[in-house]
Specification:
It is a single chain. The chain is mainly alpha-helical. Among the domains are: about 80 residues, D-Maltodextrin-Binding Protein, domain 2; about 35 residues, no CATH class. It has seven helices and three strands. A three-stranded parallel beta sheet has the order 2-1-3. Helix 2 links the parallel strand 1 and strand 2.
């Protein structure tokens, strides 16, 4: 073998050795190797935040990694969804959202993401019960009575909900539509 051929073979062997070493190092890394950010689509203190904080310890235990909860409320959860969609698709960012994600896709025109294209569902975390509550002096004792009372001439009803596009907002809107 000529000197240049030996040199080329030597370079090739060094290159292959470095490549195999790099592959070995890469394959030795296990997921997750750093903390994971969990975006919560509504502000602290709400149901979504409570769910995140309930599942956080179990996730940290199972993954042996820190889960950082970052509440990004606003626009019916679309702010958090936008942040999560812009994150690197490396498994280190997850989004905890509710049915408002689907509603937001139709309520907001200028979204910077597409929920179907930009997210992969991981799984259902919980089922929640929605409660409609009112002051004790209200003349209605159930939903039928509330709807009848709300339809009386001159009645104005006001609702509190966690944000535009949230389940609470959509449910309240349905009641308003029945007036």
């Amino acid at each position: 073998m000529s000197t240049s051929g030996a040199r080329a073979a030597s370079l090739l062997a060094a290159f292959l050795g470095a490549a195999l070493w790099a592959v070995g190092v890469a394959s030795a890394q296990t997921y997750p190797a750093r903390p994971i950010i969990m975006y919560v689509a509504f502000p602290p203190g709400g149901v979504d935040d409570a769910v995140a904080r309930i599942i956080q310890p179990a996730l940290q235990n199972a993954l042996n990694q820190t889960i950082i909860i970052e509440n990004a409320g606003g626009a019916g959860g679309m702010i958090a969804a936008s942040r999560a969609a812009r994150a690197a698709p490396d498994g280190y960012t997850i989004l905890l959202h509710q049915d408002a994600l689907a509603a937001g896709m139709t309520l907001y025109r200028d979204l910077t993401f597409d929920a179907v294209r930009d997210f992969v569902p991981i799984g259902l975390i919980n089922n929640a019960v929605t409660t409609l509550a009112a002051r004790p002096t209200l003349a209605a004792n159930n939903l039928d009575e509330l709807l009848k009372w709300a339809k009386e001439p001159g009645r104005t009803i006001k609702f509190g909900h966690p944000g535009v596009g949230s389940f609470g907002h959509l449910a309240d809107s349905l009641i308003e539509l029945t007036k």
